[in-house]
Structure formats: C-alpha cells, structure tokens
Write a structure and sequence with these properties.
The complex is a heterodimer of chains A (about 300) and B (about 425). Chain A has eleven helices and nine strands. Chain A has about 300 residues and is of the alpha/beta class. A five-stranded parallel sheet of chain A has the order 7-6-5-8-9. In chain A, strands 2-1-3-4 form a four-stranded parallel sheet, with helices on both faces. In chain A, α6 links the parallel β5 and β6. Chain A is globular and about 55 Å long. In chain A, about 50% of the residues are buried. Chain B is an alpha/beta fold. Chain B folds into two domains: about 110 residues, Urease, subunit C, domain 1, CATH 2.30.40.10; about 300 residues, Metal-dependent hydrolases (TIM Barrel), CATH 3.20.20.140. Chain B contains 16 helices and 20 strands. In chain B, the strands form five sheets. A six-stranded mixed sheet of chain B has the order 3-2-7-18-19-20. Chain B has a five-stranded parallel sheet with strand order 11-12-15-16-17. In chain B, strands 5-4-1-6 form a four-stranded mixed sheet, with no helix packed on it. Chain B starts with a strand and ends with a helix. The chains are: A alpha/beta (about 300), B alpha/beta (about 425). Chains A and B meet through α4 of A and α7 of B.
Chain lengths: ~300, ~425
C-alpha cells in the first residue's frame, strides 16, 4: 500500500486507513534506531529542509534524525539566520528552497495555515511540523503510535487532554486522530482556555480535572504557555496549578493502568508533578523515541515508498 | 444632446414605479419618463436611442462604503480605477472612506479627493470625513470644515472610536451640521487577535476568534448614545443576528438609526474560510448561517436600509501571505448587483427592495439628491440584464485589486450600461 498524498498538513485530512498505514510503517522503522549503525539508504540523494519559524528542539531534532537515518541530506533553516529577517515573504523563501531542489519542506510556523499556504504553491512535499494553533499532525501520529504500542487498539479508549486547549495545535491534532481511531476524548481546562464549539469536533468538555479523570485510560497533558498569564485567561500560576496540575493523588482517579503523555517541553510542578512525569505511567520519553520512527515512516511514504 | 432609453422595465422605488417605461435624457437630466416616448420625441435635436428591451432600467447605484485607497495606497486602488470598478458594477456614486494616508480628517484631503475624482473619476465620489484627528479616537476632526468641503458623513471606519465619551461628543457635534455618524462596530478589546468569527471554524483552524459580542457591544453603545444625543447614527456592515435585533428594536422606538449590510455577509458563512483563503478574510468576519439569515431578514423588513459593498482593495502580495498577517478586506463593487439580485431570485427581497437599498435609501441616508429617475433628476442610470448568467473572472475586474471571495462563481444578472449625468461611462460590450 502507498500513501497517495503530496503533503501531510493536518490529521483532519487523513482517513483511518492512511493513519494505520503510517503507524504500521513506523513500526518497521522503529527497529532501525535500535541498531548499532542507525542508518538505511532509503532516501539517499533526497533533500529535506527543516524550515522553522518558531523555536523548537524536539521536533526539529526528531525530523533531522529521521531524515539522516534514512540517508537523506538535511538542511536546517531557522528564522534568525534567514533572509526572513530582511523582510522576505514566506512564499518567496519557500520558492527559493524549492528552486534548490528540496524534496521535502518541513515547516514549523507561528501562523495557522502556513503549511497549507506552502503546499498550495510548491511541488515539494510539505510536512506540517506545527502551524499556529491549528495542527501538529506528526505529534498526533506519534501519540497514536505510542498509545497503540501499549494498548494494541484505541477503539473505545477514554483519553483526557488537559490544559490550554484553545491555543494548542497538539490538542486539535490529537482530538482528530483519537476520534478517528475510535477513542472517546475529553478536553479539560479552565473555560477561558476551551475554544468555542469544540464539542462540534467530537470532544466532551470538562472544567474540573478530578471529574474528567474518572475512568480514563490515558491523559495527555499540554504545556501551559507561561506568557499567557496576564491575558485574563487564568488568575495565577498558583491557582492554575492547584486546579489542573496532574499529581500522583489525581492519577488514582483514573483507571489503574492509566498512561500519561506530554508533548513537551514540560513545566514541572505547573501542569505535571515531577513524580508523575518520571513515574511508571509516564510515556513521555517513549513519545520522543517513537517520534523519530513516525517521521521516518512519513518521509518514506511521501517519497513514494510502499509497504 | 438627447438620449432615449427605450423599451426597458423601469424600476424606480422612489416613485413606486416598476413598469415598462421609456426614459428621455436631455442635458444630463431626466427630461421625461413615460410609455413609448420614441413617438413623442421627434424634435430638432438628434436623438440617440438605447434599446433596453428585456432589461431593467434603474437609478444609478450608490455605495455608502468604498475604500478608494487614494491618497496613500495607490498600489491597491486609485480614484481612477476604483471609480471605473464602480461603473462596471452599476454604481454612479460612491462614498470614499477616510482611512487613506493621510487620513481624510481635514478639508485639504477632502478637496484633493474631490479634485482628483473630477479629473480622473468615472463616477461621482462623495468623501466621508474622519470622526477624530488621524482616526485615533482622541480629538474631534474639524467636522464643520469637512462638511463644507464636501463630506457627506463622518466615520473612523476600521479604527472604531473606543471612547464612549468621544463618540458621544462626535454625535452631538455632527448633529448640528446634519452629518450622519457612521460606525464600524467593533470592540477592539474583545476582538483582539481575532481573524475569523469565533465559533466552530475558528476552533478548527486554530485562528483567533472575533466574537459576535465584539460587534454587538458597540452597536448597543452606539444606539444608546444616538438615543441620548438625537444624532443620526449609521451602522456599517452589520453582520450578526444580535446587532440586527437591537437595531430593529431601536427603530421601533424612533431612534435615528440607519444601517447597511454587505453582499459577502448575506451570501457567505464562516464555513467558507475553512481553506485559509485570505480572500475570505474581512472585518467584520463572515459569520454563521443564523447570522446570515438574520441579516437577510433585516434587509427584508427594512431594519437594514442599504446594501453597501465595503469594497476594500488589497494587492495580491498583501493577500498572498499567512492568514494571520494578511490584511482584512474584500472588493465588492463589481459583484454587488448579482449578489443582491440573488436575494430577489430566492424570494427573500422584492426587486423594488433590492433596488431601493442600492439607490434611494442610501441617498436619503447621506441626504443627496440622487437615487431616483424622477423628471428633473440628474441622469445617473444603470441598465441591467437580469437574465444573463456569467462567471466571475477576477482578472477581468476594472479594480486594480483581485481580492474577491467570489472568483469562479456563476452569477445571474449583470450591469450592462452605466450612465453618469446622461453619459454612458460603462458598457458591457466595450468594457470587457
């Protein structure tokens, strides 16, 4: 089977079959990273450009390693060193990169829709590595992969996504992905951080964490963007933490074998207690490991690879 | 020079006419309206005849809300290209919003616009002056002088006056000079960071939302101030059900308020933005189906008096960027009629209502002697083929800009001739 797509822009655009294909393919690529020589020649001669308009360590490094383990050439292009600071538009920048025969453009951008904008005009494959508060499809794919790896099947699973849902692209992509795979999704946070009409996307809204955790199989904690304090979204970090921090005590409200995930970077003691982040339920580092396998699978499939 | 528009269906809501009538134009004025004038019009002067069989003959359209961009943003539009676009859309008078650079907040800018319009314009231009100096919302502009120079209303469109006190004073002051105060109702604190209507679509796209409340809070404030001051308040581009409801209620109590709706707001919903197309980004944003229905109902029961375009040209390079950084605004002069006519075809408005909202009703709002084909009136006339279907091709627009959400749309009804003071300034056959 092959993935008949030029770009990966949003989980919303993928169907269940495509998601399963990506996850299955990732499974076979995961093994490569456990080898002594972590490299296969699959994408030799291909060029991957990491075009990052926002700071990112994890995602950029993950894409870079994924590409390198497939033997592709990788160029990292970040906003502070680019001509974007000279006023070049996003489209002009991308067209120039394409003129240098980039096969893949991996874009992280602060504006929602930036990846779609590129995909419309470029013939290179565009992979959305996070656009504004819109989507972060590769994060959702690695989350789905990680849950599937542990549970085998996501059908009927109850998952809580906790935090600033309104400003989170991870929340949106996870919500779409989990719903497509048959899970039940609860979104949890202060009412100021729950976006309008999210019920329309299939989520159940909770304002109280304790209530939301009852009976869940997995919890996805979102990073609280500390700069949002002072925008009348929550009064103080102290109160936010008291209401929404995932503590060991709260963890007991969920199902016995509950899994805890976080896209990182974590604010220890703000949204997640250190003993939870480092505890037995935590899959936070598995997510990082799996991220490389999922991104290798995507690069492989987008370049026309078949399984 | 005499011109006869013969055999057309004349729709002149000011005179409650919707009949097969001929129009005789002499020296730029409507000389006579009546049946079969060709027989009666044998005279010494040469007679030119336009055969309008099967066509609608209506007063030239009046747009209360046009951005001509000159002075300051001539790369988006000029008085020359904006008035040409107006002529192609059947508009014979357009009101130029003051958010130019410099802002039209003093009589020199007003005079510049009028002078330029006289020399290069194809249709009549009536400037709207700023409410406050630089549209900064702090100190009143020289409103009396703006009026003397030719402004027909005042507005800080796009930069709404946030201070209720300044708005109150502006209304009181303008009232003495008979000028309507036009407000773009948007509470900037509620709308901050917003790009699209706050709702299902803003949530899906991860774009900042502009809640309906941002408009409605200001509509409520303005209505209260209009009631207190007795000033004539005109509310621009009404887009929400709540705003329509409040205006309706205020009108029943006799508050001096008029209001307009834009074709994009009664045609499209926020669902249209799902593809991140910046040509669907405007302010106020496209709203929900319920809002669209309420706006149409408001037009139907005359809560909303006028159809205005909010023609807001932006160059391709302005629009071809990230949705969040692209400017707000769409052009509308060349697509307004078929969209308004769409409401007639779907039975929402009568033909007379649609025409009235583009002619006599806007004329009354700004107190100008246009918008009718009464004998003796200036011969600003628009001739429409109501049956022709056509496809919108933005590359054919006379506007300098192409930022329409209606590219590729199939339309029914098209303006085929536009006359200003009895002179044909646009004709479908020669114009394209």
């Amino acid at each position: 089977m092959a993935l008949k797509k030029k770009d990966i822009l949003a989980i919303k655009d993928l169907d269940v079959e495509e998601i399963n294909l990506i996850l299955d393919t990732a499974e076979s690529f995961k093994e490569v990273s456990t080898r002594d020589i972590k490299k296969v020649p699959t994408l030799r001669g291909k060029t991957v450009v990491n075009l990052f308009f926002e700071p990112s360590t994890r995602t950029r490094t993950s894409f870079e390693l994924a590409a390198k383990r497939l033997s592709a050439d990788v160029v990292n292009f970040s906003v502070s060193t680019s001509s974007v600071v000279k006023g070049e538009s996003l489209l002009d920048t991308a067209k120039n990169l394409q003129a240098m025969q980039a096969d893949f453009i991996v874009i992280r951008h602060w504006a929602s829709g930036a990846a779609s904008l590129l995909a419309r005009v470029l013939s290179s494959s565009v992979i959305n590595a996070g656009d504004g508060a819109h989507e972060h499809p590769t994060q959702a794919l690695l989350d789905l992969y990680t849950l599937r790896e542990r549970k085998g099947n996501l059908q009927g699973m109850k998952v809580a996504i906790v935090g600033d849902i309104a400003h989170s692209r991870v929340a949106r992509s996870d919500l779409y992905g989990l719903k497509k795979m048959g899970a039940e999704v609860r979104v949890v946070g202060p009412a100021t951080m729950i976006p309008a009409e999210i019920e329309g996307l299939g989520a159940t809204v909770y304002y109280h964490l304790d209530e939301a955790l009852s009976g869940v199989d997995a919890i996805i904690m979102l990073r609280l963007q500390l700069e949002r304090q002072g925008k009348a979204l929550f009064p103080t970090l102290r109160e936010y933490s008291r209401l929404y921090c995932l503590t060991l005590e709260r963890l007991h409200l969920a199902n016995r074998d509950v899994l805890v995930m976080h896209p990182g970077p974590i604010n220890r003691g703000v949204e997640i207690a250190p003993e939870v982040a480092d505890g037995l339920s935590s899959l936070i580092l598995d997510q990082v490991t799996n991220g490389i396998a999922v991104r290798m699978a995507l690069l492989f499939l987008l370049s026309g690879g078949k399984v | 020079m005499r011109l006869l528009i013969a055999n057309g269906r004349l729709v002149d809501p000011a005179n409650k006419l919707n009949n097969l009538l001929d129009v005789l134009i002499m020296d730029g004025k409507i000389a006579k309206v009546g049946p079969e004038l060709s027989k009666a019009s044998t005279g010494s002067k040469a007679l030119e005849v336009i055969d309008a069989s099967g066509k609608l003959v209506v007063p030239g359209f009046i747009d209360l809300h046009t951005h001509l961009r000159e002075p300051g943003y001539e790369y988006k539009e000029t008085i020359k290209t904006g008035t040409a676009a107006a002529s192609a859309g059947g508009f014979t008078t357009i009101c130029a919003m003051p958010n130019t650079n410099p802002v039209n907040d003093n009589q020199s800018v007003t005079e510049f616009i009028l002078d330029k319009a006289r020399r290069e314009g194809v249709v009549n231009v009536r400037p709207i002056g700023a409410i406050t100096k630089g549209s900064k919302g702090l100190e009143l502009a020289e409103i009396a002088e703006l009026r003397e120079a030719g402004c027909v209303a005042i507005s800080d469109d796009g930069h709404p006056v946030m201070s209720a006190e300044v708005m109150r004073r502006a209304m009181e002051y303008a009232k003495a000079f008979g000028l309507p105060v036009i407000d773009h109702c948007e509470d900037l604190t509620l709308a901050e960071g917003g790009m699209v209507h706050e709702g299902r679509i803003s949530t899906e796209l991860g774009l900042g939302g502009i809640p309906a409340a941002a408009e409605e809070v200001m509509v409520a404030r303005d209505l209260i101030l209009a009631e207190q001051t007795g000033a004539h308040l005109h509310l621009a581009h009404i887009s929400t059900a709540g705003a329509v409801r409040m205006i309706r209620e205020a009108k029943t109590r006799g508050v001096r308020v008029t209001a307009e709706a834009c074709p994009h707001h009664f045609t499209l919903t926020h669902e249209a933005v799902i593809d991140f197309d910046t040509n669907k980004k405007m302010n106020p944003p496209l709203r929900t189906k319920a809002d669209v229905e309420a706006v149409i109902e408001g037009l139907r029961d005359d809560t909303l008096d006028a159809i205005a375009t909010d023609h807001a040209p932006h160059a391709p390079e302005d629009k071809l960027q990230e949705f969040e950084t692209a400017p707000f605004g769409v052009i509308g002069l060349e697509t307004a009629w078929p969209l308004a006519y769409g409401l007639v075809l779907s039975g929402m408005l009568t033909l007379e209502q649609a025409v009235a909202k583009l002619t006599v009703q806007p004329a009354q709002i700004i107190s100008i002697d246009r918008g009718t084909l009464s004998e003796g009136a200036v011969a600003d006339v628009t001739i429409i083929d109501p049956d022709v279907t056509w496809t919108v091709d933005p590359s054919e627009f006379l506007s300098k800009s192409r930022n329409t959400p209606f590219g590729g749309w199939k339309m029914r009804g098209r303006v085929i001739k536009t006359l200003v003071s009895g002179r044909v300034v646009w004709s479908a056959s020669s114009g394209r």
